[in-house]
C-alpha cells in the first residue's frame, strides 16, 4: 500500500513565553522567567517546515491553541472583565496565569497518539488526544487538540478521533512522545511501540524517585485497545527510571525510531535487552528486521543527550531509502554529541545525513525537533480526505511569515502576561489564522 508520513509541526503561538512550568524538563527549568521572542520562535519553526517540504517530505502545520485560557482562569475563581481576570491572577497567582498562557501546545508530539490504517482493525487512521494530566498548564490542551484533529481529519470513513483518556493519574497519557511505529515501509503493516514510566496498579514496579513519570502502562494499553491494534504487533516497554530522574521526561528525549531503525541510548529502557528482543520478534512477524543503533554512555553521557536533545531529533526516510537525522544546532555545540555524530555519518549505518536547524527558542523552552511534530502516516486516499489547507507549500509559508511579522511581538517578559493588550493581540492573530488555514470556527475563545 502506498503511503507517506506527514509531519504536522506545531506553529508557535503569539504568546510564546518561558514560564518554567514543567518540573522534570531540565531545559524548561533552566530558562524560567527569562525573556522570550515569539516572532523568532515562530519563524524558526516555519523555516524548518519549509526546508523539509522543499526536500520532498510531506509537511503540514498544526495551528496553535488559544491563549490565554480564560476558561481555566475563571474556573479557578478569577472573575470580572478579561482585564480584571488577568490583573487579579497576576497579583494573586502569577504561576496560574503563566499556566493559562502556556506555550507548550507548540510541541505537537504531545498532541495525540496516531495509528495508521495499516495497523488498525477497522482500517481507519486512529487518533487519541493526550490528556497530559501530569501538569496543570498542559492538562486542558486535549480539549482544543481534539477539536483541531476533528477539524483536519473530519472524514469518518477514513479517520477516527477518540476522546482523551480519563484525566486521572492511572491514565496519564503524553501522546506520541512515548510512542513509535516500526515497519518495513510507511504503508506496510507495522509494530507499535509504547513506552511508559510507571505502572499505576502495581506499586512494586520500578518508578523514578526525583521527577514524575508521566506516562502509565495503563494509558498505553487503553490506547492500543481503542485503536484496535493487534497484540502480536504491539510492544510495551518501561523507561529506565534512573534516566527519568536525569531529565528524560519523555521517551523521545532518549530514543527515536523510524522504519525499521531504533536510534537509542543504552540507558533508555529498564530492560534494554528484553526491549530490543521484543521489538525484533514483533517485526519478524511483519517480515521486517530491526536495525538498532545503540549509543553507549561512554560515547554520549545521558546529561549530554539531554542538554543537546540528540535523541529528540527527527529520523526521516529519504527517497533513496536511507535516513536523515534532523538535529538542533545544540548538537554541534556539545563536544561529546558532535564527536559521536561525526563518527556516525558515513560509517555504513542506516543514518546517512544530518540536517541541522536553529530552533533556539524552542530548545530554551524544553523541546527539540521531534517535540515539534506529530507523525501521521496516510495513504493517498486518506491524504485527499483530510483538510488540505494545513499542507505546507511555498504559498502558505509566505502567508504565515507575513502573518507572524504582523501579529507577533519580538519580546515577552513574565510581567507582559498581565497586559490585556497581549490577550487582544493573540485573539486577533488566531482569528486571521483561521482564514489563512481555511478552518472557520476552529477556536472557541469564550
Describe the structure concisely.
The protein has 446 residues and is α/β, with parallel strands linked by helices. Helices cover 33% and strands 18% of the residues. The chain has 16 helices and 15 strands.
Give an overview in words.
- The protein is α/β, with parallel strands linked by helices and 446 residues long.
- Among the domains are: 1-107 and 372-446, L-arginine/glycine Amidinotransferase, Chain A; 296-365, no CATH class.
- It contains 16 helices and 15 strands.
- Helix 2 packs antiparallel against helix 15 (394-407).
Task: Give keywords.
446 residues, alpha/beta, L-arginine/glycine Amidinotransferase, Chain A, three-stranded mixed sheet, 18% strand
Tally of extended strands? 15
- SS class: alpha/beta
CATH architecture of the domain at 1-107 and 372-446: 5-stranded Propeller
CATH topology of the domain at 1-107 and 372-446: L-arginine/glycine Amidinotransferase, Chain A
Low-confidence stretches: none
Helix content: 25-40%
Looking at CATH, the homologous superfamily of the domain at 1-107 and 372-446 is: Succinylarginine dihydrolase
Number of helices: 16
CA-based gyration radius = 21 Å
Overall geometry: globular
Indicate the CATH class of the domain at 1-107 and 372-446: Alpha Beta
Termini separation? 44 Å
**Percent of residues in beta strands?**
15-25%
How do the strands of the widest beta sheet line up side by side? 2-1-15
**What would the average pLDDT be, to the nearest integer?**
94
What is the makeup of the main sheet? 3 strands, mixed
Amino acid at each position: 500500500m502506498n503511503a507517506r508520513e506527514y509531519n504536522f509541526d506545531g506553529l508557535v503561538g503569539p504568546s510564546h513565553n518561558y514560564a518554567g512550568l514543567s518540573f522534570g524538563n531540565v531545559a524548561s527549568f533552566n530558562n524560567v522567567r527569562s525573556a522570550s521572542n515569539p516572532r523568532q520562535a515562530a519563524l524558526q519553526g516555519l523555516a524548518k517546515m519549509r526546508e523539509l517540504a522543499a526536500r520532498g517530505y510531506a509537511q503540514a502545520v498544526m495551528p496553535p491553541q488559544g491563549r490565554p485560557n480564560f476558561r481555566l482562569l475563571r474556573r479557578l475563581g478569577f472573575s470580572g472583565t478579561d482585564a480584571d481576570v488577568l490583573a487579579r491572577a497576576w497579583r494573586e497567582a502569577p504561576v496560574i496565569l503563566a499556566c493559562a498562557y502556556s506555550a507548550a501546545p507548540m510541541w505537537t508530539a504531545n498532541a495525540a497518539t496516531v495509528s495508521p490504517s495499516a495497523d488498525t482493525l477497522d482500517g481507519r487512521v486512529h487518533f487519541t488526544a493526550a490528556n497530559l494530566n501530569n501538569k496543570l498548564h498542559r492538562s486542558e490542551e486535549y480539549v482544543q487538540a481534539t477539536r483541531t484533529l476533528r477539524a483536519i481529519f473530519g472524514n469518518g470513513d477514513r479517520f477516527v478521533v477518540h476522546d482523551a483518556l480519563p484525566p486521572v493519574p492511572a491514565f496519564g497519557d503524553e501522546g506520541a512522545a512515548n510512542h513509535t511505529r516500526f515497519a518495513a515501509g510507511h504503508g506496510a503493516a507495522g509494530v507499535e511501540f509504547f513506552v511508559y514510566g510507571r505502572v499505576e496498579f502495581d506499586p512494586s514496579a520500578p518508578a523514578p524517585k526525583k521527577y514524575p513519570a508521566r506516562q502509565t502502562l495503563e494509558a498505553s494499553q487503553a490506547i492500543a485497545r481503542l485503536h484496535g491494534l493487534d497484540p502480536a504487533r504491539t510492544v510495551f516497554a518501561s523507561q529506565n527510571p534512573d534516566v527519568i530522574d536525569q531529565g528524560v521526561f519523555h521517551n523521545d528525549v532518549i530514543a527515536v525510531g523510524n522504519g525499521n531503525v531504533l536510534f537509542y541510548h543504552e540507558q533508555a529502557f529498564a530492560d534494554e535487552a528484553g526491549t530490543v528482543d521484543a521489538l525484533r520478534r514483533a517485526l519478524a512477524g511483519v517480515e521486517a528486521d530491526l536495525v538498532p543503533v545503540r549509543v553507549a554512555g561512554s560515547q554520549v553521557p545521558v546529561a549530554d543527550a539531554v542538554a543537546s536533545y540528540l535523541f529528540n531529533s527527527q529520523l526521516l526516510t529519504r527517497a533513496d531509502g536511507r535516513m536523515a537525522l534532523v538535529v538542533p544546532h545544540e548538537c554541534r555545540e556539545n563536544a561529546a554529541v558532535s564527536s559521536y555524530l561525526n563518527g556516525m555519518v558515513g560509517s555504513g549505518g542506516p543514518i546517512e545525513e544530518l540536517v541541522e536547524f536553529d530552533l533556539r527558542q524552542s530548545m530554551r523552552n524544553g523541546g527539540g525537533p521531534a517535540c515539534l511534530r506529530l507523525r501521521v502516516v496516510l495513504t493517498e486516499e486518506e491524504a485527499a480526505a483530510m483538510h488540505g489547507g494545513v499542507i505546507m507549500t511555498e504559498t502558505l509559508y509566505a502567508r504565515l511569515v507575513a502573518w507572524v511579522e504582523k501579529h507577533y511581538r519580538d519580546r515577552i517578559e513574565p510581567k507582559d502576561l498581565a497586559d490585556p493588550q497581549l490577550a487582544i493581540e493573540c485573539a486577533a492573530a488566531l482569528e486571521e489564522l483561521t482564514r489563512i488555514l481555511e478552518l472557520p470556527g476552529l477556536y472557541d475563545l469564550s
